[in-house]
User: What shape does this take?
Amino acid sequence: MKQYSEKKMNKTVYWAEKPGDQDTKVIRVVKEQESDSEMLSVCLREAARCLKQGGLVAFPTETVYGLGADALNETAAKRIYEAKGRPSDNPLIVHISAIEDMDKLAYVNDMAKALAQAFWPGPLTIILPKKECVPDGTTGGLGTVAIRMPSHPAALELIRQSGVYVAAPSANTSGRPSPTKASHVVEDMRGKIEYIVDGGAVGIGIESTIVDVSGEKPMILRPGFISKHMLEQIIGDVEIDPALSKPVDGMRPKAPGMKYTHYAPKGEMTLVEGDEGVRGQVIQQIKELAAEKQQEGFRVGIMAPKETISFYYGCADAVICVGDRNGQQTVAAGLYAALREFDNAEVDYIYAESFRGEELSDAIMNRLLKAAGHRVICVERGE
Assistant: This one.
C-alpha cells in the first residue's frame, strides 16, 4: 500500500491506495487541535463536506470509532450497512452536536430532557418515538430513533460543521470487535469509505449505554459507562431488557447489538468463571482447556486481568492482559484491542476469565458474552 503525506495547519493526510478500491483518506487530529476550535475546523473541513454530500466518514468518539453518514439521507445510511455488512433491520444511532437537535428528530418527553441535561455530551444513547423526517432506513424500520450527543471534540466539530445529523454505528465489519484506534478502522474499512479521522485511542472503549424512554417505563437495552444506578438518580426506577441476559430467537432488535453476534474475534471464545473462592480452580480449568486444544494441534489464546495473567505465561500461543480487575475502566478500554490481537495471532480457541462484579462489569460482561456466543463454563466449589 502506497502512502503519501501533505502537511497543512499541523494536519497530516494519508492517501491509502488499494488496487480496485476507492481511495480512503486518513486525517490525523492531534491533541493541540482538539483544544483549538479554529484549527480543528480547518482540519475536518474536507471530511465534513464529504458527510454533507452523502459520503462515509469514520471518526473517534469517547466510546469507540463510529462510521458516519447523513442520517436523513436514506441512500447514505444504506451505504453504512453495505460497508459494514450489517443486517438492515439493525437500527443506527443518530449523533447530534446540540441538545436542542433532539427535538427536531424525535418526540421528546421529560425523562429524555432530564437525561440529556445530566449526561450529554457523553456516552448515553436515548431512544424516543421518531419524527417523519427520520427515514426507516436509519431506524431499521422501527418507529423509534436512537439519539446521542458524543463528547469527543472531533466528533462534535465534524457533526456541527457538516450541517447534518450523523448516523454512526461502530466503524468495524459487522460482528467483529469494535474499533478503539484508527488502525482498527483501517483494517476493516480501507477502500470502502472516503475518510477516516484519526484521533488516537479512545477513552472509554465500549459503546454507549442505550436507554429506551419511548414507553411508560425506561429500559436499558445496552449497558455501558452510564450505569443503571446513575440513570435512576435522574429519572427513578429503570428496568433492564430481559433479552440482555437471554437471547431470543427471531427477535427484532430495538437497539444496536441486541440480536446479532457482536464484538467477536475469529477464534471460538469461551468464558470460564467462578466466585472469588474458586479463583485458583478457574485458572487451573483454563490452563487444562488450553493444553487440551494445543495437544489437538490448535492455536490457543488466553485473556486475563493483570492480577492473574502471570499464571498463564507459557500455557498458550497468545496470552493477553486485558486490564486491571480492580480498575475496570482499564478492562473496558482494552477489551476490543485485546480481541483483535487474538485475530492477529491467528488463534483457533480463546479462553478468558469473566468480570462479574460492580462498576462497569455489566457492560463488560455484555460484550464478552456476545463475543463468546454465550459459551460459559461455571466452576463450582469442590470441583
